[in-house]
Amino acid sequence: MGELNNELLQQHLTGKFGDQIKLEGEPYGLLTVETSRDNIIELLTYLKKDAALQFIYLTDITAIQYPEQENSIGVIYHLHSLRYNVRIRVKVFLPEGDVRTPTATVLWNGANWMERETYDYFGVNFEGHPNLVRILNVDDMTVFPMRKEYPLEDPNRVDKKDFYFGR
Amino acid sequence: MQNFPSLNINTNTDTNLQSELSTLNLGPTHPATHGVFQNVLQLDGERIVSGVSTIGYIHRAFEKIAEHRPFYQITPLTDRLNYCSAPINNMGWHMTVEKLLGINTPKRVDYLRVIVMELARISDHIICNGVLGVDTGAFTGFLYMMEYREAIYEIYEEVCGSRLTTNIGRIGGFERNFNDIAFAKIKKFLVDFPKVLNEFESLFNRNRIFIDRTKGVAPVSAETALDYSWSGPILRATGVDYDVRAMNPYCSYEEFDFEVPVGTSGDVYDRFLVRNEEMKQSMRMIQQALDKIEKEDPTIFHADVPEFYLPPKEEVYNNMEALIYHFKIVMGEIETPVGEVYHSVEGANGELGFYLVNDGGRSPYRLHFRRPSFINYSMYADMSRGMLLSDAIINMSSLNVIAGELDA
Fold first, then answer.
1. Which residue of B has its CA nearest to A133?
2. What are the pLDDT digits (tens) for A88-108?
3. Contacts B36 to A, Cβ<8 Å
């Protein structure tokens, strides 16, 4: 079997998916592509199962939020082709009012906790997940704390000054 | 009980006692859980029918806090992730930042880092394998090896002044150079430890009770391990030779001659053997690093990047430039490039990855930490099904889940 590099991988993906994926470039050598939630499972399946790619290892799933964007919440997958030792980053951006995307647990069992954590932090609803409940925070929490609308308190805030408490 | 969908406890009381299942809360602070995490197990006698893992008891929002701190102030947070091998977390974080900033470290820094990281790996494996012995009822090995974890902590102390949460790295290198006593202690460790490790191995490998309690217990196939995204010694015990040091070398690991030990059956016994073998490989690497260092300039211990490298205190007190840089770095006033970077190192438990998105501000825009303990532990409840309770305890200790890293 031949070798795989970013250029070849890019050719494979554009050949198969055309304009359904958007190439974001190669920040620090890691090919980054963006797709929509309609195509994500098809793309991940192709990456995992195609003999020329073999991205069998799901390294990580996480999310990010850019409040100023229309599709503000992005789910980020890092995959690793152990056969060819190439990594890829796949992103799916979702609108804030409709944060749902299909679950990757149909492909990897390891996605279970990673998606639960992403749900816990950002409120991403992974459709079809077997047990999408909070994992690190308490169950009765109502917010998704890693979103940008919940900044940590300012360490210089004045209402915590001692004199307000008679100290 | 909305979170425990698999727990449908049979409340039918008119059947005989043997058909009743009992519920056991293993943890959150059970001594055998090695940290604060809970497993609600449904037992048929001593056999586990189903289980639900609950974590998050010491969750302290590592990622959220990191969004509000300059790069250097994130270092102490990383120390507290896997506190059994804090330097690997430190170095992993600093290497991620160096990748973002485009800093190339001098060779001597790389070798010194290899020494510190491999020592950390040894100290982590000492604990894991020692405690595995304790859980099978053999206390001797644990006590015997503990002295050598102490020896490693003394080396850290010589290098940076602290022992457990070391804060040992800087962007570009180390805060201070290794002194002669540190090198002497490392060399002494390399002479003393192999003998002890051999004795430790023979204490267990010829022990009928230990072998009976670990061989064939919780075997995992390579396919299942990869499916659950396992990494580190427990993945290698299944026969997959995935090691970040060999596959994506960082810190000049490509120059080192070492083997990646793998197991065959992926059971608890294989995990024990793989960790023991890794300790030997780590010692090989430390020896090679010591040899390589002799050919390098002994005064170099950091890259020449004053705008990012936090200067040593004595320079801050005596040198105006150093004081200015110190102030700018601590206040997060340094200019950093916009970009996103993923960097991973081989932690003691597996692939330790940092996903850093930087918008050029004083703190990371987003920092995600790929925690091997979190991902490795996700299979625990599934794999415990059908297992005896006593085997599930041994299985847990062989996974080496560190609560600080699990919860982050």
1. B3
2. 999 999 998 899 999 999 999
3. none
